[in-house]
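Quick note —
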Amino acid sequence: MSLSVTARAGSFIQVLRRVFRLAAPYFRSEEKWRARGMFAAIVALNLAYVYALVLFNQWYGRFYDGLQNKDAAVFWREIRVFVVLAFFNIALQVLKFYVTQLLQLRWRAWITRNYLGRWMADRTFYEMELARYAGKDGATPDNPDQRIQEDMQLFTSATMTLSMGLLNAVVTLISFVGILWGLSGTTAFSVGGTSYQIAGAMVWLAVIYCVVGTVITHFIGRPLIGLNFRQQRFEADFRHHLVRVREYSEAIALDRGETVEHGQLDLRFGAVLRNYLQLIKQQKNLVTFTAFFGQAAVIFPFVVAAPRFFSGAIQLGQLMQISSAFGKVQDSLSWFVDNYDSVAVWRATTDRLTSFDDAIREHAAQENALERSDAPSLHTDGLTLNLPNGTPLLANAALSAKAGDNVLVQGPSGSGKSTLFRAFAGIWPFARGRVQVPSDAMFVPQRPYMPDGPLRVALAYPEDAAKYTDEQLRQALKDALLPEFADRLDDSDAWSQKLSGGEQQRLAIARVMLKKPRWIFADEISSALDAPAERTLYQRLSEMVRARGGAMVSVAHRSAVGEFHSQRWTLVPEGEGAVARYRVEVVPAPAGSAVAT
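Predicted structure written out below.
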């Protein structure tokens, strides 16, 4: 039993440490004085609110004594006092609500921007997804979008609400326990012929009543913590799959995959419903007990104090004061009972945010084994590439290309061509060695990102479209064989859905035409194009880099692309027992290629 209590105490302290770790940075940030000032104001308003409750308790005694004595003067005087107290109380509650909500808003804004910055910094968002898809779910949090958007809002609001509620409970308890002790007097009773007297009996009864209630509540509500944690995860998984269906709507429709996707959505929604049903059952048990506990607390002080009232020891005013003071003490001691469900949700949210914070810290602390620097040409030394699961793809590769050496990277599917492309870009975390890449280089993926909004924004991405003139933007579209879009620069749309695969690849090439880099690294950028369009665009790209004194490194399967390259790097499978699965063979392009000649 003592071990169990110790373990629970340790768990509670651990939760508080997690909360402090999440909350403290804001109150130490550049907004610390504003945040601390607002927090201090909220504390002061809560103390004033408790003081108002004490004044109301005193008012009960005078008002009901006046009623019992049929004293009209006292009655009307206390009515006027009540009006003043009521307006004072209303003003405190409104001001407390406003300042609390304002602090929550500023805190949420700061913590969201802080985590967004950390998540987006140094490609952490990318590496965390790679870790997830590599099967490292235990160390990588799911659905970072939900943690940033929903969990941070829940954490800030729940932390403020619960902390201020606990403060109110403690201060109210301190304020009213003395009042209740004085009103309780001394209770005398006999057991086995021996007389006993207990001072402040109502206080002890309130403590016993609430301790029993808290223990029972914890026993009933303990499963809610895990259920709330899983509920948030299942809801996020369901929402995430809905977004994927929307993003890949065309591919799903072409594959006639509606039935499969409907089944997947139904499977995820079923998990949401099953867990929520368990949550409802546990909440039903908790609500049943807390409702009984709350209702019994209303009548309990009257039952205990009734003998003294009927004996004439106390008047009606004192009886009402006892009831009010007991209620406040009982409410304070029952804070855990009344807020158990909220605490369970808050703890689940805190656990989710803590694991997210741990993952970001872990990725930020990882040292990049790949040294990447700027140089006039492309060069690698001891370049080793692994898959996320640790499988070596390439070992100690030494590659180099100078201006004019257009390179075609080829090899079997899954041999690591795109992984090599990512290593050149410096974004592959499972690589080591040294890579030197020209600074004026542009990396073009097979599936380019298309932001929603005006076409000019999608074309200039990630740069500001205002950097370019309309004529430059139109010319880039024409050069990339998209003349029909030249007069649609201000049209807004979901371009990733609106444009075909070939049009998206041509728009990505239009970005290259617009920005005119010296070096181009292209990963299957013409896979969705027809042969004439592919030849035309590769011809234009090759001429552009040659005129700029640069080069082009292309990953492609089609042999026709080879005529625009002077070298070929072919990934060749290694035999059994080799250090890595593949090696790179460097061979010149066939004689008569467009570049070689």
